[in-house]
Amino acid sequence: MQTSYALISIYKTRIAALEHALREAGTQRQHPRAQRPGPVEYRKLMQRFKQFLSTEERFWTQLVVRIQRQFALSEARSALATLSIAADTDPDVDDADAGKHDHFRFPPEPVESAPSQLPISTQRNSRRATLSKTLVVLGDLARYREQYNEGSTRPRGGPERGGRTARGRGSQVDLPRAKTYDKARACYECARDLMPDEGNASHQLAILASYQKDTFESLVQYYKALCVRTPYDPAAENMGNVLSKFLEAWKRKRKTKPGQLLSDDLNRQKTNPPSFKDSVILLHALWRLDVEEMDSISPKHDESVVKEFSELVSDRILSTDTITKVIVAAQGALWKQRKVSASASVAMESRIVGHVLALYRALLQSGITELDEAAKIVEEDLAMRITATFRRTLPALRIASKWLRVNLNYVLGDTRKGKIDLERGPVIKVIPAFWEVYTSFATRIVLVFPPTSLPKLTRPLEEDVDARGYLPLGGMLVQDTLLTNPEGDDPRTPEQVHPNEEQLMRIWDIGHDARLIAEISGTPMESFRAQFSLIDSVRGYEPGITQEGAEGEAVAPNSRSHIAVDDRQSEEEDARTETTDPVGDAFREVLGVPSPEDEEEEDEIVWNPRYVN
């Protein structure tokens, strides 16, 4: 802050002043002999600035290498590889015979580090935090270089700026290429991965999103910058400014089109999904007000967002990433309202938690529909039962499931751990309906995808990595992943794990969460518990434990057998598996789903590939 950023600030101020002067000179008629800044002075200043950024980048890159190597931070090697920084590069060292000393040269590397009074874990965490900060600086330098980069075919711009026209003709000569901040983004993401409990890197990612006019992505990143153990405080003010400006712009737009809200035209939203993101941003902006003002500006806007969300999910309009981020942002808003906001309102907190549960309920209802369709599919490979819509919602369902486990006492209304009086707050209206839908969903998912036939989690999935350090989830995603694989990480690389296997892991984890939640005293899931008691009596199944046979041999993860069978010939075993499924019969009786024997023979021939030559 006292060296690199101080000088960068001076450069930016001078460049902005010259740009302003050049624009003024171009629009005003001045005396021919009047002294005014010219393009040559501007180009010289830009050249010095780019040279400064280049030398700064070299210094900070060498500092990254030095920190990683001197303190043996092996966990940072992947970050260096991602950023194409050679870990064995030797920084410049002061040489008495070199005749040239500058602040880019490093002192000799000590043979042994000086002893420290701090515990080893504290030392390592502090050094990793320092390395993470240097990566943020590298990201900022890369961002400035791209922001102020000028070429013959594009002008300078922070966020995107217009093209250049031919002198005296007014015709477009060359359109500027879109600015790319890939290097800066990679630096910020590596910094965040090293220190997920710190919010600085997420704040910088929010800035990058603002350059691309992606307010929704900025909002999500601002929440990630705030909802961590070491929040980045400027993110709160910056997010507030973004939401305030969005709300004011929305009000002006509404005045020009009386009676038309962003959330009214569903048909337009289906052809233009970003407008739904605008509705979500508006809702988060309204949450910064009090309940009365929120309702006066846009009545029942939260209900409208949930309705649109449900329909867009069912119609496969929203991407997997957008579905997940809508859930994550809502969780962040609730956490911020409870833990950060100085003027927290119980009424608004109740409204937000009601919205979180309503979004989750919409996903569950969609899941019930898809699971009923999946139950009609007879396939050896369980992955073939995952419908396209269900596939899109699985990461968000898993994140919502973890949030429910972390905040279960809060949702159940434990006044010792939550501030909401559910008997008086409006959230009481959604609680009974939520548990009814959740129980129905949990019952179906373990019927269509039997837990003992699914692969367990053996590695962090994409949402695990993205949610590291995110306090609304309490570290549950990563923690559970480690618990289900106590012997170590899956040796396979992410590319070696088939996407279908990852989806089945998600389904196993969602069903496992439902089982654990149902066993908590006070959870209104009696029917689900009773059904699993029947399953346990038939399978000898325990939550989180792979089913074992009489000799202690684990059943294969993808086995179709759901019952205990005697040691018979494989043909008899297949026949028994085809005709007998007491666990499935128990669930079908509860759900009213017909058993395979009740289906017409023609249908069975159509659906079962075993009968196809």
Description:
With 613 residues, the chain is an all-alpha fold. Among the domains are: 4-27 and 37-93 and 103-108 and 119-152 and 177-194, no CATH class; 360-613, no CATH class. The chain is built from 24 helices and two strands. It has helices at 4-27, 39-70, 77-82, 120-147, 182-194, 200-211, 215-226, 234-256, 266-271, 274-286, 291-297, 301-314, 320-339, 346-374, 388-406, 408-412, 431-448, 462-466, 476-483, 499-518, 526-539, 570-579, 582-591, 601-607, and strands at 164-165, 172-174. A two-stranded antiparallel sheet has the order 1-2. A hairpin with a 6-residue loop joins strand 1 and strand 2. Helix 10 (274-286) packs antiparallel against helix 12. The longest helix has 32 residues, at 39-70. The chain is globular and about 75 Å long. Mean pLDDT is 77; it is low at 94-99, 152-157, 161-173, 261-272, 414-425, 538-580 and 599-613.
Mean pLDDT: 77
* Count of runs of 4 or more consecutive helical residues: 24
Distance between the termini: 72 Å
| Largest sheet report | 2 strands, antiparallel
What oligomeric state do these chains adopt? single chain
User: Structural class of the secondary elements?
Assistant: mainly alpha
Q: Which range best describes the helical content: under 10%, 10-25%, 25-40%, 40-55%, 55-70% or over 70%?
A: 55-70%
Give the overall form. Answer: globular
Please provide the count of β strands: 2
Domain DNA/RNA-binding: 184-474
Biased composition (Acidic residues): 596-605
Biased composition (Polar residues): 114-127
InterPro entries: DNA/RNA-bd_Est1-type, Est1-like_N, Est1/Ebs1-like, TPR-like_helical_dom_sf
